[in-house]
Amino acid sequence: MTMAKAYVSVVLVALVASAAVMFGLPREDLPVHMLGHECTHTPNLITEAQGDELMRVAKDIGEFQTNTRSAVVKSVTYEHIGEAQPLGPDGCPHPLLVPNLNRTNCIFPGRVDVGKHFLAYGGVGALKQNIKDMTSRVLTFGRFVYNLDEYPIMRELFEAPEFQKSAKRICPKHQQTLDPLQFNIIINIPGQSVALHIDSVHFWGANRFRFPEWLLAAMSFSGMWGDKFVHQVQTVGYFHRWTDETKQSGASGGSANFTGHSGGDYVFYDTNGKPQRHPPSPLGAISLDGTKVVHAADTYYSHITPPRIDKSKLTSIKWDGGRQRWLLISGGQELASYATDDLRLSIVYRARCFESEEARTKFHNLGEEDKLSLDEILAKFREDLQKRGKLTAEEAAEDDRLLLGLRILDTYIRYPLPEDRLAIPVNYCAAQMFAPAWFDPLFTALRC
């Protein structure tokens, strides 16, 4: 696709979406099976001692890469669904494709569903910025831990009675056996957000180690694999110690630039209406099944634009014990530094829900014959897309996997539009990347 065609496509999508909202179509259109699920908020789920230990572990880890890199599964069975295109001297031939890990082909990024929506609509806060600044807002930092015993605090948190109680309220009543899945430490610098998403979905015979995560998300939204869906619980806790009040008073120890109302609320949709919100209160936590409840973190200090991060460069945030600062390093250069109390620090721990230890053991020992194949998943999508009138018989026969992937993304994954009913529900500034230079004065006037 040429840049000119891409620009026209972006503009047309923006016009159609704006017109749809103006004529009263819903901003929230989540499927019924993703609504009405329980969410719990526990003010002091993490003890002060546990919070201190999490802070020590974070500083001991020392370096956190962007989540787009740290979350990548390098040995995934199916890296793509067949949409791969050669990586040419001018980059990838389609705006939604990116180079794969070994830079031989262009494929959909693992969470193309999340990035596509955030760039097009501006997230929960209806942000209006160019693609490079918007990208920097969601390149948050993290460390993914899959072994509970790598850090003793991880097992302590999982086995704590308070966590077990809150987690089992989220799991189905007939599935009270918890199977620890992963622990993530997530760092947001001022100006960053976590885009609307659902967590990495697990099915009997399908997970992120076998298929691209965006495909799993589409499977969950579709409801067509409900009989194989594995329920989960996600608990998000905060181990920073600042509050808006301590920042305003200067008692937090943070930088003078980051005081007052910080935002960064945890946002989730349990109905097709305005979302629920919980502020990132220190040592508090919220639990839900993030694979079937759409959620996000609203922008932390939304009036601040973070340093521009080039997604093609290795970028991380590092703890410098000598300077007692967190350093933002990209491509070997320091872009900024932060005090600990400038950062939004969270621990995310997840577990699968099973009806018994036997079921848990069976899940971990599935044979190849019990796993879903890419061909059968795509065949089911093709059949349903044709029934919906979203794919013609001719298109299905041609088996254009790039086209099929785009139709799957557009048909099944329906993240809500921005919450503000008075805001234009499209990030029109995203079109600047594809527009001719003589459009620049217009984008300047629009404060892009």
Describe the overall structure.
It is globular, with a radius of gyration of 22 Å. By secondary structure, it is of the alpha+beta class. It has helices at 3-22, 48-61, 67-70, 112-121, 131-138, 152-159, 161-170, 213-222, 244-249, 357-364, 374-388, 393-398, 401-412, 440-445, and strands spanning 40-42, 63-66, 85-86, 98-99, 105-107, 141-145, 177-188, 194-197, 232-238, 266-268, 276-278, 285-288, 295-297, 315-320, 325-330, 333-338, 344-354. The protein has a single domain (28-424), classed as Jelly Rolls (Sandwich). A hairpin with a 4-residue loop joins strand 14 (315-320) and strand 15 (325-330). Helix content is 31%, strand content 19%. The protein is built from 14 helices and 17 strands. The strands form 3 sheets. The chain has a 10-stranded antiparallel β-sheet with strand order 1-12-9-17-7-6-2-14-15-16. A 4-stranded antiparallel β-sheet has the order 8-13-10-11.
Which helices and strands appear, and what pairs or packs with what?
Blueprint: H1 3-22, E1 40-42, H2 48-61, E2 63-66, H3 67-70, E3 85-86, E4 98-99, E5 105-107, H4 112-121, H5 131-138, E6 141-145, H6 152-159, H7 161-170, E7 177-188, E8 194-197, H8 213-222, E9 232-238, H9 244-249, E10 266-268, E11 276-278, E12 285-288, E13 295-297, E14 315-320, E15 325-330, E16 333-338, E17 344-354, H10 357-364, H11 374-388, H12 393-398, H13 401-412, H14 440-445
Antiparallel strand pairs: 1-12, 2-6, 2-14, 3-5, 4-5, 6-7, 7-17, 8-13, 9-12, 9-17, 10-11, 10-13, 14-15, 15-16
